# Entry
Amino acid sequence: DTAVSQTPKYLVTQMGNDKSIKCEQNLGHDTMYWYKQDSKKFLKIMFSYNNKELIINETVPNRFSPKSPDKAHLNLHINSLELGDSAVYFCASSQAGGAGSYNEQFFGPGTRLTVL
Amino acid sequence: AQSVTQLGSHVSVSEGALVLLRCNYSSSVPPYLFWYVQYPNQGLQLLLKYTTGATLVKGINGFEAEFKKSETSFHLTKPSAHMSDAAEYFCAVSGGGGTSYGKLTFGQGTILTVHP
# Structure
């Protein structure tokens, strides 16, 4: 069984379109994350949700809107796609993320988004 | 604020040789430190972690790392490289407190090449 899964694996679209990436984890974790890996392989956190509540929002453009229908799912919707949005987006989950806690994060396989 | 610096974006070793990947961190709170490996077109896999306790930590695939507070370092080593170790390696730090709730800050990554 895949612990953290993402769909789709590849996404090619035109500038200006709206697209969504879905993430699901079956680990029973209560915290989920979205990371962006750019063309230089630099990984940066975008969002974190704990029990469906937004915890971290790292100055991401408001064209990006995460949604967590339940604690096993964290979807990422992107409006008005731009060329610079092309990247690999990774979903991750962990058991906890509170103050002073240890948070081993488990990553999904990534979604490669290409904006033309 | 936290940051991670990985010295050397590319490291090349011969099969059977020592692997040393360098990581230095900056953290205003006691750090939790991680090494992740990313194989081509795959997600990140945790190699090892340091939270508290013993400063020499052992991970999967024969890797280990030593937390040196005085040097703010967490270098990754493996006594004998194998061809299957060729991948990109990311060092990451988490403070786990306050607004950094669950946030992992990654280094720039080091690509390890193993020659026969």
In short: The radius of gyration of chain A is 13 Å. Chain A has no helices and eleven strands. Residues 68 and 74 of chain A are 4 Å apart (CA to CA).
